[in-house]
Structures are given as structure tokens and as C-alpha cells.
Amino acid sequence: MAHNLTLYTSGTTNGWKASITLEELGLAYHAQAIDIFKNVQKESWFLEINPNGKIPALKDGDQRVFESGAIMLYLVDRYDKDNTISYPHGCNEYYEMLSWLMFHVSGLGPMQGQVNHFRCFASVRSDYAIDRCTDEIKRLYSVLESRLSSHDYLVGNKYTIADIANFCVVRVAWILELNLDEFPAVKRWVDRIEAREAVKIGVMVPASAMSTDKLVEMFGAMKAKIDSMQNSDKH
């Protein structure tokens, strides 16, 4: 099937969801790096692609798709005819897959984003916010742990976009000082997915994406800055 795919992205957990899906499907695509630190995603040309001003966004010819979950669903609906990382629409497993994808989209992804903000990016330090969000993340990880204790993957022991979406945030649990040894089934699942060739390529998209070592260094400096602040909850 002819296609003309351009992924507008940055080396973030949301960006990885789209690039890994593209790599797993073996699709040819152009990755256009978006410098989110310079707010390129807020420029008028980009807002024509994603009115929400966030990465990732996808153009497939004249078709635009934005929001990472929608991009993943679009790609498997249109291009995964053999259901290599999905299930046929309408079957029981399809709706189970959709449920775990929404678990990520509505819960795990946004909550981990909140923890990352208060732990690394906030202009004031709030121990209450950090502790509250971290406790909720641990609860969500325990949900994954319960499922993965009896399944290799989230749906029917088959690797799907539901795994990709949740994996992309769990793989950077170290930002929150979370030790995956507390969640052994989750850790085995992360290691299993991390070893996939398409995943190794996808997490380095776009070409300007930082290596894990660079990310550790950058987030370490950010957390040190927050740690040096007085707790604003006491004011």
C-alpha cells in the first residue's frame, strides 16, 4: 500500500509510542524533529497539523492524525492487516487491547507526566504533590504487575500497541527513583520489550534524540535543582 508518512516528533515517551509502532510495522516514514524546548510545537504551521500543539503528530498524505494513542490506532487500523501488533476489530481481544491502551492514555501516561513535572520541571518544590502523584503511579504499576504476573503481555500473551504505550513510560521509571525490582513481572516485561530491534530503533527517533545516558544526566540535574528548593508546602 502506497503511503507518505511524516512523523513530527521528539525523543519523549509520547514520541516513542509513535516511532516504535512505525518501526514494528516496518513502515517507511520521515521523522521531522520538533524542538519542544523552543516551543516549535506551538508555531502556526504545526498547529495546522495538531491544534493541541503537542508531539507527536502524523501526516499520511493529506490525512493528519494527532495524539499518540490515536496515531497508534490509526497505524494498526490502516497498515497492520496481519494483526502483528494488534487484534482484528470487533473481537474480544481487540476491546481488551483498547482497554489497556486507555489505561495508559487516561491514567498511567498523564499521572507519570505529573510526577515528572513536579519532580523535574516545577518552579517550586511541593513534597505533597510529588508524594501524592508517586503513590498513584505505584498503584498503577501494581495494576500492571497483577496482570503481567500471569501473562507475558497485556492482552492474550501477544505483544500489541497496548504494551508499547505502557512500556514507553515504565521504561523511564528511574526518573522517579522507582525501582522496578519491586515489580518483578513488570521488570521482565520491560526487559523483553526493550530487547526488540524495532524498539531499540524507535527510542532513538528522531536522530537528535538523547541517549539514555544523556537523559539520566539531564534529569539528574533537574531533580537536583528541585531538591535544592525549600518545600513550598510549608509556606
From TrEMBL:
Source organism phylogeny: Eukaryota, Fungi, Dikarya, Ascomycota, Pezizomycotina
Family classification: Belongs to the GST superfamily.
Domain GST C-terminal: 90-226
CDD domains: GST_N_Ure2p_like (cd03048)
Domain GST N-terminal, chain residue ranges per copy: 2-83
Protein name per its UniProtKB record: Glutathione S-transferase
Domain of life: Eukaryota
Listed InterPro entries: Glutathione-S-Trfase_C-like, Glutathione-S-Trfase_C_sf, Glutathione_S-Trfase, Glutathione_S-Trfase_N, GST_C, Thioredoxin-like_sf
Pfam families given in the database record: GST_C, GST_N
